[in-house]
Each structure stands twice: as C-alpha cells, then as structure tokens.
Amino acid sequence: MHGLINRAIEMFVRQTYGGKDWIALTKKLDLGFTEFEAMLTYEDMVTMQVLEGLSDHLKKDQTDILEDIGTFLVSHPSVESLRRLLRFSGRDFVEFLHSLEDLPARARLALDDLNLPQFELKEHNLDHFSVVVWDEMQGPVAFGHVLLGLLRALADDFGALVLLEYKGGREGTEVISVNLLHNSFTEGRRFELAVNAS
User: Fold this and answer.
1) What are the beta bridge partners of residue 120?
2) Are strands 173-182 and 118-125 parallel, antiparallel or unpaired?
3) Cα–Cα–Cα angle for 95, 102, 73, nearest 5°?
4) CB 120 within 8 A of CB 131
5) SS3 track for the chain
6) How far is the C-alpha of 22 from the C-alpha of 190, rounded, in Å?
7) For 48-77, how does the pLDDT look when each residue is reduced to its tens digit (9 = 90+)?
8) Which residues fall within 8 angstroms of residue 80, CB to CB, at 6 or more apart?
9) Which of 15, 24, 80, 152 has its CA 20 to 30 A from that of 96?
10) How far apart are CA 75 and CA 120, in angstroms?
C-alpha cells in the first residue's frame, strides 16, 4: 500500500482523536515506528493491522472509519490541497461526478506510483447515478467506503442536496448510489481558483 494512503489514515487519527491515541495504537500494534513515510510503500498487511487496530481502539466498525477518512480528506483544513484538487474538477457536484473517471489518471500525474481504483459513472437519468469502484488489487482499504465519505463531504462543499447509499460490492467492485435532490440547495463552501497567499 502506498505510504500516502497510510499517511492519510495516520493524519485522520492524529487530527481527529489526537496524537496520543495514534502513538498508543502504533505501540499496541508493535509496528516499530510511529509515523508513515508518504513516499514509501508498505505491505498491505500493515495497513490491514492499522485499520483493524483502529476499529478495535475506537469500538467502531471499520467501514464507518473508512467513510470518516473520506470525509476528513475533503473537510479538514490540514488537507486543503486535496479539496482544491477535487473542487477544480467541476463547477458543481454533477460536473464533479462526471470527472471521477479521470481522477486516478490525474493522481498519477502527481505520483506515478499511486494506484487508485478505477471509477465508472453510470447516469440512469438526470438526478440518479451510480458510481462503480473497480479495485482489481482488492487490498485492505475498501475504497468504496472512503469514496462514500468523500462524496458526502463534497456534496456539502458544493451546496448540493444528495442521498448516497453504499450498495455493496463483490469480485473487486463496489457500487454507490447517488440521488441528486438539488444541485444548488445551499451556497456551499467558498472556493477560489487562486490560492490566497496572505
């Protein structure tokens, strides 16, 4: 598993629950280190141990934790650069959905060894979509749950009113149902193309 993904899990724990909880978790798991290096690659087993240990530590289902991580990646100030990258993908939530299929290729432009699952958008009608997550590697991270949290946060960010449902997965695929109730329900969070240098 790419270190950037492990680092995202670490930052989620540190920023949401505190550094002490993260250190306690790494010691309990006997990882031999307390910080993931973003540019290294780790065995999938390490990521699996961390997620299982985190689920046990928080007394929370692993899928809920993965969804929370997806929300964190859009909403927390410490990862504003990722939010900007995602918001740059469209003027509204529907345009963002249509850009999802290009996201893995755009990620590889920044990091050529970062292999994300492939996404396929199916448009059933103007306000009903399905997002299919194709993960041939089938590693320890159920990316569909991460994407579910990410989509929830981005819908809020764009000001869209959306019903999202994880429909399950099998044989390396996961499906998320997206029902758009209103594309501009609220004003959404402020977003400007240029980074404020002040």
Assistant:
1) 132
2) unpaired
3) 75
4) yes
5) CEHHHHHHHHHHHHHHHCHHHHHHHHHHHCCCCCCCCCCCECCHHHHHHHHHHHHHHHCCCHHHHHHHHHHHHHHCHHHHHHHHHHHCCCCCHHHHHHHHHHHHHHHHHHCCCCCCCEEEEEEEECCEEEEEEECCCCCCCCHHHHHHHHHHHHHHHHCCEEEEEEEEEECCEEEEEEEEEECCCCCCCCCCCCCCCC
6) 32
7) 999 999 999 999 999 999 999 999 998 888
8) none
9) 15
10) 24
pLDDT tens for 18-59 read 999 999 999 999 999 999 999 899 999 999 999 999 999 999
165 forms bridges with which residues in the sheet? 177
Q: How many C-beta neighbours within 10 Å does residue 61 have?
A: 11
In the numeric block, which tokens belong to residue 145? Answer: 């749950």
| Length of the chain, in residues | 198
Q: What is the CB neighbour count within 10 angstroms for residue 186?
A: 11
**Taken in order 17, 192, 152, 122, is the CA torsion positive or negative?**
negative
**And the tokens for 89?**
């993908």
Contact between residue 135 and residue 164 where contact means Cβ atoms under 8 Å apart? no
> What predicted TM-score, i.e. pTM, was given to this entire model?
0.88
Nearest partner of 149 among 76, 59, 94, judged by Cα: 76
| Contact predicate 177/162, CB 8 Å | no
